[in-house]
Amino acid sequence: MAHPRNRSDDGPRLPWWRVPMVWLVIGGPAAVVVAGIVTAVIAVRGADPVIGSEPDAKFSERPAVQGRNHAATPQERP
User: Fold this and answer.
1) Hey, is 46 helix, strand or coil?
2) Is the pLDDT reported for residue 58 higher than 70?
3) What is the sign of the dihedral through the CA atoms of 31, 32, 37 and 39?
4) What predicted TM-score, i.e. pTM, was given to this entire model?
């Protein structure tokens, strides 16, 4: 006689979409993909303009590397 746990007839079987574990397995990676797409859309739509790329840009709006390099250069006296 077979053990009750090993019976092949466990009662009515649920469709796969009604099993909660399936949604945990599918939902995690799906949420990560959706979050990645949302992040990419936010990054593309809300991109900050490049500051200091124009030659006539104010000195305070230049990139930090240029400002740091300029601060290290000696000042010429008239």
Assistant:
1) coil
2) no
3) positive
4) 0.49
